[in-house]
Design goal:
CATH topology of the domain at 5-145: Rossmann fold
Largest sheet: 7 strands, parallel
Strand content: 15-25%
Structural class: alpha/beta
Order of helices and strands: EHEEHEHEHEEHEEEHEEHEHHHH
Distance between the termini: 29 Å
Number of helices: 11
CATH architecture of the domain at 5-145: 3-Layer(aba) Sandwich
């Protein structure tokens, strides 16, 4: 394998589907492991991309996937914990990252890009999610492979993430009870996060640096929901929940299928999703306005798929 080989872990997810077409447009050879290749068959139209059935928590599988002399882009992450041996924050964010770094080091990988989360740089993360993201970053910095870390704010796009979740709720509920409604954030377009990864791929100036990726506008979680409603051509009344009620709601919802809200997520919302550190501008990128990042949301209602490279 050569410098043209890229292993993308988590490539079938929301961010990965925006990143992969950009990598393919550069003529790179891309390997995307997935437990369920049949759910991502549309990616096979991308040139030089191969989907590999694989369980990446297996060290032997990881060793076989590694591109000697190439690049590893690690996108895998979860927002809430599930059940099972590989479904917790420590297993997914910390232990898997360590296994990836070990396998990459043995294979002679030349470059490593790691997607973390805004708030992971705090010395006292208030949630287990952010604490696990911080521990993963520490493992990356301790490694010998030239690395770059990205900490996105809430990622906005019409075909996944928080916007799609709230779009489903807005279509169902004219009045939306909302925990953490006043939480501050600067949503970043999913395409901008993909462009940031691509910009850092071959730029030696980005090695050993951490970029906090935010959009150009500050809003609140309630403002995010209202923007989603406007993107759908609807209106919604947001009903902010007092903290005690929010905790009670989260305690119930985290036990239901889908885990729409957990108490750990509420603790994460205490951290403002803002940054004054290096971000998109340091990578030479102009951030996309928030509402422009949601263009196509109304079309997604009819089941249309937004192009992955949009």
């Amino acid at each position: 394998m050569t410098h043209d080989d890229v292993l993308v872990l988590g490539g079938t997810g929301f961010l990965g589907r925006h990143l992969l077409p950009r990598l393919a447009a550069r003529g790179l050879r891309i390997t995307v492991p997935t437990r369920r290749p049949y759910t991502a068959r549309e990616l096979l139209v991308l040139p030089r991309l191969r989907l590999v059935p694989a369980r990446v928590h297996d060290p032997a599988v990881l060793a076989d996937l590694m591109p000697p002399g190439g690049t590893v882009i690690h996108l895998i992450g979860i927002l809430s914990e599930g059940r099972g041996p590989h479904a917790g924050f420590d297993a997914v964010h910390v232990e898997l990252t360590r296994r990836v770094l070990e396998a990459a080091g043995r294979a002679g990988v030349r470059r490593y890009l790691h997607v973390s989360a805004l708030g992971a740089g705090r010395a006292d993360p208030p949630s287990r999610y952010l604490a696990s993201k911080r521990a993963a970053e520490e493992a990356v910095r301790a490694g010998a492979i030239p690395w770059t870390i990205f900490r996105p704010a809430v990622v906005a796009g019409p075909d996944g993430g928080a916007a799609l979740l709230f779009a489903r709720l807005v279509r169902l509920l004219p009045i939306l009870p909302l925990a953490g409604a006043s939480s501050r954030l600067a949503p970043v377009a999913v395409g901008d996060v993909a462009r940031a990864l691509l910009a850092a791929l071959d730029d030696p100036c980005t090695v050993g640096r951490t970029y906090e990726l935010c959009g150009p506008e500050e809003t609140t979680l309630a403002g995010f929901v209202h923007a989603v409603a406007r993107g759908l051509g609807r209106t919604v009344r947001v009903l902010p929940l007092p903290d005690a009620v929010a905790r009670l709601e989260a305690a119930v919802l985290e036990r239901l299928p889908g885990r729409l809200l957990t108490r750990d997520q509420l603790r994460s919302l205490r951290v403002p999703g803002l940054s004054d550190g290096e971000g998109l501008a340091a990578l030479g990128l102009v951030p996309t306005p928030f509402e422009a990042a949601l263009e196509g949301l109304a079309g997604a209602r009819a089941g249309t798929r937004v192009p992955a490279g949009s």
